[in-house]
Amino acid sequence: MATTSTSSSTQTNGTTGAQRWKEMSKPEIGDWRVKGGLAQMLKGGVIMDVVTPDQAKVAEDAGAVAVMALERVPSDIRRDGGVARMSDPDLISGIIDTVSIPVMAKARIGHFVEAQILEALGVDYCDESEVLTPADNEYHIDKWQYKMPYVCGARNIGEALRRIGEGAAMIRTKGEAGTGDIVHAVTHARQILADIRAIHNMPTEELMSAARDYQAPYELVVEVHRTGKLPVVNFAAGGIATPADAALLMQIGVEGVFVGSGIFKSSDPAKMADAIVRATTHYNDPDMLAEISRGLGDAMPGIEANKIPEAEQLQTRGW
Amino acid sequence: MVSSLNRNTPSQPRIGVLALQGDFAEHIHMLGEIGIHAVEVRKVEQLFEIDGLIIPGGESTTIVKLLMRFEFVDQLRSRVESGMALWGTCAGMIVIARELADSYPTPLNLLDIGVSRNYFGRQVDSFEAEIDIEGIDGEAMRAVFIRAPVVSDVGDGVVKIASLDDGQAVAVKKGRVLASSFHPELTTDTRMHSLFVELAREAQIDTLNPTRNAEEISNTA
Questions:
Q1: Is residue B189 domain-resident?
Q2: Domain annotation covers residue B183
Q3: What pLDDT is attached to residue A8?
Q4: I want to staple A273 with a disulfide (CB 3.0 to 4.6 A). Which of A62, A166, A259, B157 is the partner?
Q5: What residues in A contact B25, CB-CB < 8 Å?
Q6: For B57, which residue in chain A has the nearest alpha carbon?
């Protein structure tokens, strides 16, 4: 259970997020490794949005590595408008009781009380998500305060490292949720990977300026320079609707995928779920992908993401 | 660290890591640290090109489903029966068990143990502990338990090689089959991987000397 989640706690113990990342990530301190470790176990897998226990069961049977419990899938949130909040605890508990795989749930950006509630419910991973309406225009949750690990969305390396500096143990691309259009997930995955390559290949004297330009914690920029990868697992999300979409992101270089509306807004969810799971394993095998992609029925109806005005985009929420 | 010149020479056993889902890359990295160039196993025919297979951490329901979907089960059983070394970590331990306390998924019964999944609770109950492992000298190993299972009962000939302070078995071995609740691949301690390489080396020697019979294999525990 979180002890406190006020932003002042950061100041009182006098450390920055990045310093804390450095301390907490040492092997002898378990908290960070068991948090990031669960994300390691999800790699090569598919995390599916579900809105009922029955859907959660379909996802588990299809081979999902985890489910995201929520009241409405992103395409319905987009259609309905209004304020999107954390799901009813009854719904989340019902899903937790139904499946044995990890259960994730979403809290609004900056809404640390929703996060405290999710932790109290026994949620395995919290998604501090732009799909819900942000609760704070300026501050994200101080994720170090929780035993529950966090996944956060990012569009570029700066955003990814800021979230990791705040304690996120897993990153996903934001994409443009609820559209069924893969273009922004591809853009964000390519951007993050390109930024990583650039940092990795920089002479060390350029790292501080890079940290300034990316608005990223210096210590984490140094870590990316040293290892050539993010210090946490990196998944894709936001617009994946077919097995080929999942394989595309895997070939571009992410470590697994989230599928939001793409499963249960398709014409045959069980079949689509099974196919996307298999495609994520055999993402590099065109013969297998051809076989997997046959006869799946209709994918979710899509919206062309490039035609959505910026004010209506979900990805611009958070900073 | 063995020189890279020794890579893939006949003296090194051939090791594969099941790469259907999970943290297979971490196992491959750890094996690389001790001079073994391991391969990602995604297709059933690859089982015939290796002396030892690691089933990594991941989500056990997903891994079992994919093993069945891609028709691994019979060939995997036959390779283990003919002496291939096998090590399941966490989800991998669940996959190879005889039976589970809960009804789901259906394990492959490659090792005579009963297993309780998520024994310690949910993710917020995950932890690390120092444990001693029989067959590994020196200081205790730092073991990472993530939504970890435990061994609830063992059949004939299965040896408990590591337990928690309360006596709960978390690593077992029978012949060349090894299972652990925890994740050595998430640490920098390669000793358990070295132990497994030795089991694979025995399997390799058998392959090169077909005169050794099945009885001898079962007595190497």
A1: yes
A2: yes
A3: 33
A4: A62
A5: 43
A6: A41
Q: How many domains would you assign to chain B? A: 1
All residue ranges of chain B with pLDDT < 70 are 1-10, 210-221
Residue with tokens 């399997």: B203
Per residue in A275-285, pLDDT (tens digit) is: 999 999 999 99
Instruction: State the CATH number of the domain containing residue B56.
Output: 3.40.50.880
How many angstroms separate the most distant Cα atoms in chain A? 59
Contact B62 A63 (CB under 8 A): yes
Contacts of A35 in chain B (CB under 8 A): 126
3-state secondary structure chain A: CCCCCCCHHHHHCCCCHHHHHHHHCCCCCHHHHHHHHHHHHHCCCEEEEECCHHHHHHHHHHCCCEEEECCCCHHHHHHHCCCCCCCCHHHHHHHHHHCCCCEEEEEECCCHHHHHHHHHHCCCEEEEECCCCCCCCCCCCCHHHCCCCEEEEECCHHHHHHHHHCCCCEEEECCCCCCCCCHHHHHHHHHHHHHHHHHHCCCHHHHHHHHHHHCCCHHHHHHHHHHCCCCCEEEECCCCCCHHHHHHHHHHCCCCEEECHHHHCCCCHHHHHHHHHHHHHCCCCHHHHHHHCCCCCCCCCCCCHHHCCHHHCCCCCCC
In a domain, B5, yes or no: no
Establish if B8 belongs to a structural domain. no
Per-chain mean pLDDT for chain A: 90
Alpha carbons A65 and B58: distance in angstroms, whole number:
8
More confident residue, B47 or A302: B47
Q: Domain residues for B142?
A: 15-220
Interface of A with B in 4-63 (CB under 8 A): 27-28, 30, 33-35, 37-38, 40-45, 60-63
